[in-house]
Amino acid sequence: VGRLTEEKGARLLAVTAGEAGLPLAMVGDGPLLNELSRMGGSIRCTGWIDQDSVGEILEGARALIFPSTWYETGGLAVLEALARGIPAIVSRNTAAADYVEDGVDGFVIDPKDRTALASRMLDLQDDALAARMGDEAYRRYWSDPRTVEAHAADLLAVYRTILAGPSELGGHIGEAA
Length: 177
Prior knowledge:
This protein is an alpha/beta fold. Helix content is 45%, strand content 14%. It is built from seven helices and six strands, in the order βαβαβαβαββααα. The strands form two sheets. Strands 1-2-3 form a three-stranded parallel sheet. It has a three-stranded parallel sheet with strand order 4-5-6, sandwiched between helices. Helix 2 links the parallel strand 2 and strand 3 (43-47).
């Protein structure tokens, strides 16, 4: 769900899913939309769709895959999936990796590692594993939901630490650690 670009891992994901014969729904738009749409087979590209339609796709999803090959912040789609009890496969170099416990509620993989991506996607073809990870994703998310208030509190804690000065950061600004 999002921008269909090279750095987001869209082509990597589509090629990997296609080679494994796994169904893949890609929601969004971007420079790769036409190329990915022409792949056909088990790959379906919807373009941008309304929020209810995205919800319908997520409800039928085995997993949400966040294969970004560059550093990403947040990853709201990952949080939305976890909140719905959908396991996530995420790249290690994204902030979304902080929300997934590898092997518990999803998988964390190295970016651009097609073998690991394919293996984790195939692992989730196991109904029992997918259900167990989905249940754990739901439980873990709702035990500490990422509300606006929680995000603001975390952000304020970071700002307070920075404003407290170098001693709170464990050293002096400009000093080698």
